[in-house]
Amino acid sequence: MKGQVAANAVAIASLAREGFRPAGDLVFAATADEEVGEDFGLSWLCREHPDAVRCEYAVNEGGGDRLEIGDAVVYQATAAEKLTAPFTIRVRGRSGHASMPGIADNALVKAARLIERLAAYRPEPQLGPEVEGFLLAALGEVPPAVEAVARMREVSPPAADIVEAVLAPTFSATMISASQKRNVVPAVCEVVVDCRLLPGQHPQLVDPLVRAVLGGDVDYELEWGEPEGGTRSALDTPLWQAIESFVAEVEPGAKAAPLCTAGFTDSHWLREAFGTVAYGFFPMSGTMPVDVINSLVHSADERIAIADLELGVRWLRHAAVSVLG
What we know:
This protein is of the alpha+beta class and 325 residues long. It contains twelve helices and 13 strands. The strands form four sheets. Strands 4, 5, 7, 9, 10 and 11 form a six-stranded antiparallel β-sheet that branches. Strands 2-3-12 form a three-stranded mixed β-sheet. Helix 1 crosses helix 12, helix 6 packs antiparallel against helix 7 and helix 9 crosses helix 12. The model has no long low-confidence stretch (mean pLDDT 94).
């Protein structure tokens, strides 16, 4: 992310120094707060200063992995994103002294059963248009949704992991709070679940499914948080053509392939406010294996190869000249 910010600055500055005069506005927006969601970044700009960031096309983060899939080389670009729709499960019991657990009703233990059910649940896979496009580029065909991950794993385990996350909703229990004292059995336990839905899905439609998975033998309350994301952009655009031409120039025979990102980015603010066509694409050179890159995200020693920074600058210059030249 920080590398792409630096590459954006270098690309736009170098074009300016060379005297490039775009046919329209070329905007460099370096915004914070994409992951925290406290309304200090692009959401605020879109609402309070729309003329500063209004655009027809946008290049953002979230794509660019170079994947070797069998005999094919594919550069994936994200044209859609899942909807982040967190929810909280609240389980109640009866407190008591931890030395006499039999006289209490441990809310944490009851919540554990619900966590296990969510972790074991595997929703029915579905093929969205972006996943279909990716499978076609990678495999030369579009297998049925139930076979897509296995087929991909035969030729590229890293690509299979990516595809698996965007075939269906995901439910990851990530935070739990209960007793604040070691010797007190908790009367209330809250579990926060990071839920990601496919583009076009909404909490109201998924709520009955979640409740069916949790079952009826444990009393609980389920409270949905504020959803964000879940948008997509069309592919028949000059910016997508720029991605395709860049990939063909950098590596003849390689293909650009669309995909939905399992997370979400700031692109949805632009799509929702202005109808912007936004793609996530910052191409990787292959210097670092994609599974290594993905394992370093939000982890120790997160880094980017110098060759990838250089390639990213080339891409951003290419995009500006192709669309606005």
